[in-house]
Design goal:
Layout: E1 5-14, H1 22-39, E2 46-52, E3 55-64, E4 70-78, H2 79-82, H3 91-100, E5 108-112, E6 115-124, H4 129-142, E7 163-170, E8 173-174, E9 178-179, E10 182-183, E11 187-189, E12 198-200, H5 207-213, H6 221-238, E13 242-243, H7 247-254, E14 261-266, H8 276-286, E15 290-293, E16 299-307, H9 314-339, E17 355-357, E18 361-362, H10 363-381, H11 385-394, H12 402-406, H13 413-421, H14 426-434, H15 449-468, H16 482-495, H17 502-511, H18 522-540, H19 545-552, H20 559-572, H21 578-594, H22 612-633, H23 637-644, H24 648-657, H25 665-683
Antiparallel strand pairs: 1-3, 1-7, 2-3, 4-6, 5-6, 7-8, 9-10, 11-12, 13-15, 14-16, 15-16, 17-18
Helix pairs in contact: 1-4, 6-7, 8-9, 10-11, 10-15, 11-14, 11-15, 13-14, 14-15, 15-16, 15-17, 15-18, 16-18, 17-18, 19-20, 20-23, 21-24, 21-25, 22-23, 22-24, 22-25
């Protein structure tokens, strides 16, 4: 008999769901339903999630009406073991029959590998899907991942928000079930204002069209999100402007409305004297509005709000939004004007009241340490020590301003404006803003040299301090984002081509904590931590692990130099000569490790080179030292390895014809010394014996 299929519709109607997690909850519900159906061995074609502020729903297309019948087959003991001489069943036969839930007489025989055995077979009829759906739905809802759940009424059951209706439709049939004290039905609800009534769903496939046409609801989240985007873009065009649509805000706005209507509003152009970032943050964070810019990217005194009501008098709605947004912008202007009455520099003492970390002192102390480290770095790099030190002392001062107290996301940003107002140099102003960069993976880097220096110093100070008091990242926990800070340090150093000795910078950062007792092994732990993060960063760029470790062996302390070596070795490993040279270096390394003490104070003597092969290799090594010296001096490791690759044939021939571990002690030492000279040539770049060519 052919399998029959029907569509299944599940909808949970609630009070307004959390907008920031609506989409993820919807997808989680879909995943849970999908998993539960598969666990029940139910076949279906596809699923489609729906989500609005007042509902979560899933449509399952072409769900089988029942489980597939299963044939159960079991083989028991041999007939010889199952029956005694009189033909009576033995305990083995009785036990097998009991385990199958039948009498011995109901068992059959089967032949396996020429042996007759007892057997049992049964066709287990699949359950009806309609009987399985209640448990599928109950499991999906109760396991929905949410941070906080609520209780309502007298019920002890919990959900993310109180539930008001439950639609459960399998084809034309309502699946009868009571969940969260709500009886299932075929009824949904339309828009809270435009269609505040029940709507009867005839069959699951009618759901979306019914809500859109009669319910004044766009139930599909992605469709509604793209509708919001297009409405905002069109509204911006009316003002000859461009709407800046950030995906996070777009997603949140789409989670707040069931039927989006875009409205264009204005605000007083006098507010444009305030840093645009503050105005934008007020519009985005507090009012969930999209801001507009002209074609040159300048902020305009306009905004677009997305309403959940298709008002007959949109001008009144716009006026209401303008009235609400004005106080937020006025607050920003007040804070900005009030903050300017005091210079950033004069706020340094106030930083003593701010705690950086309980055991690591105040933000003032941190800024002093960062200033000292920044000055040292600037001196090494040939940058302005005055600018770097000044920017470091000022970079945290905006933390005690009214603007940042109100809009914490603006730290660094408004500080740069206040620095400019105070007459600080452009370099210092930009560094105050840039020293937090990069804030996340893939974020932009500081553009200025001063910003780069202060950013590195700030991050190193934090890492050293927290490691020093025993607060390193553990497992997946990294509350102070030290891993991100470490990657940030390497990105700035390498991408900005800053030739810094990172170990010395760590040591200096450690020394700046002279007034605070840090663990004695802090420097080593931090350096190891940074190297491990650097390894992860390299792996993300498809650098093989063995390449990284080949360079790590020579322990380069300058990240820029480290990465230059890595790229050279990575290129070299692709050459035809690298395989034999890597193998030879591995052999040399093994030999030298066993006889290291024997040749500790020895060197190769030309007069003890007995064969032509030895002499040829000795001469080649001597010449190569001269050839590659300029390359190593200029840190051109690619050319150095390319030049050394010509030794391939000579090294191969040496191992074929020369007995290194000779019984003659003098010859043995001399040959080992020769190999050490060979290895030292390569070690000026990396230990290529690590390269894997298997």
């Amino acid at each position: 008999m052919p399998m029959s299929y029907r569509d299944l519709l599940i909808e949970v109607g609630t009070e307004e769901l959390p907008p920031k997690t609506l989409e993820s909850m919807s997808l989680a519900l879909e995943d849970s339903i999908t998993k539960s159906l598969k666990d029940e061995d139910l076949n279906f074609e596809s699923t489609m999630p729906f989500a609005t502020p007042r509902r979560l729903a899933v449509l399952v297309k072409e769900l089988s009406e029942s489980q597939t019948d299963k044939k159960i087959s079991r083989v028991g003991p041999s007939l010889a073991a199952a029956f005694d001489e009189s033909g009576s069943p033995t305990p083995a036969a009785i036990g097998f029959a009991k385990s199958c839930g039948v009498d011995v007489s109901k068992l059959s025989n089967v032949k396996q590998k020429g042996i007759e055995k007892l057997a049992f077979s049964l066709t287990k009829k699949g359950q009806q899907t309609i009987d399985l759906i209640p448990n599928v739905v109950r499991t999906a809802l109760t396991s929905l991942p949410t941070e906080k759940k609520m209780r309502w009424g007298d019920s002890k059951e919990e959900f993310v928000r109180p539930i008001h209706w439950l639609l459960l439709l399998f084809g034309d049939d309502v699946v009868k079930v009571k969940i969260y004290d709500i009886n299932s039905s075929s009824e949904t609800w339309g828009h809270r204002f435009h269609c505040n009534k029940q709507l009867s769903v005839g069959k699951p496939g009618d759901y979306e069209a019914l809500l859109e046409k009669e319910g004044h609801v766009v139930p599909r989240f992605q469709k509604r999100k793209e509708l919001v985007r297009s409405l905002v873009v069109e509204e911006a065009k009316k003002a000859n402007a461009l709407a800046v649509i950030e995906e996070d805000l777009l997603r949140e706005v789409a989670s707040l409305v069931e039927y989006p209507v875009a409205l264009l509003g204005d605000f007083d152009s006098a507010f444009l004297s305030v840093p645009p970032e503050a105005l934008i943050l007020a519009m985005k964070s507090h009012q969930k509005c999209f801001y507009l810019v002209d074609h040159a990217g300048n902020l305009l005194p306009k905004f677009i709000t997305v309403s959940n009501i298709d008002s007959k008098n949109p001008a009144l709605v716009i006026k209401g939004n303008e009235r609400v947004i004005r106080p937020r912008l006025a607050d920003a202007q007040f804070f900005f004007d009030a903050d300017k009455l005091q210079t950033l520099e004069s706020r340094q003492d106030s930083l003593q009241k701010l705690i950086f970390q309980e055991k690591l002192g105040s933000v003032f102390q941190k800024s002093q340490r960062v200033a000292s480290l920044s000055k040292s770095m600037a001196k090494l790099l040939g940058y302005s020590t005055e600018d770097c030190e000044k920017a470091a002392r000022l970079c945290k001062c905006d933390l005690v301003t009214d603007m940042v107290r109100e809009f914490s996301d603006l730290q660094g940003v408004v500080g740069s404006y206040y620095a400019k107002y105070d007459g600080e140099s452009e370099e210092v102003c930009r560094a105050v803003r840039e020293h937090y960069l990069p804030k996340f993976s893939g974020d932009k880097l500081p553009e200025t040299t001063t910003g780069s220096v202060v950013a590195i110093a700030d991050k190193l100070d934090t890492i050293v301090g927290l490691f020093g008091i025993g607060r390193p990242p553990t497992g997946s926990k990294d509350p102070f984002a030290l891993r991100r800070a470490a990657i940030g340090v390497f990105r700035i150093v390498i991408e900005k081509e800053l030739d810094l000795n990172i170990l010395k910078m760590i040591e200096e950062a450690y020394g700046n904590y002279s007034q605070i007792s840090l663990a004695s092994d802090t420097v080593d732990l931090v350096f190891e931590f940074l190297l491990e993060r650097f390894r992860s960063w390299c792996l993300e760029r498809n650098i093989p692990t063995e390449v990284f470790h080949s360079v790590l062996t020579v322990y380069p302390e300058r990240p820029l130099n480290f990465y230059t070596r890595i790229r050279a070795v990575d290129n070299f490993r692709r050459s035809p000569e690298s395989k034999t040279l890597a193998a030879a270096n591995k052999r040399v390394a093994n030999l030298l490790s066993k006889h290291e003490s024997e040749i500790k104070n020895e060197y190769c003597k030309e007069e003890l080179l007995m064969s032509e092969t030895e002499q040829s290799l000795y001469t080649a090594i001597k010449n190569k030292k001269i050839d590659v010296a300029p390359y190593y001096e200029n840190e051109d490791y690619t050319k150095a390895l390319l030049a050394l690759s010509s030794l391939d044939g000579l090294v191969d021939k040496f191992f074929e014809s020369v007995l290194v571990i000779s019984e003659d002690a003098a010859l043995r030492k001399n040959r080992l010394c020769l190999l050490r000279e060979l290895r030292d040539l390569f070690l000026q770049t990396a230990d290529i014996s690590f390269l894997d060519h298997t």
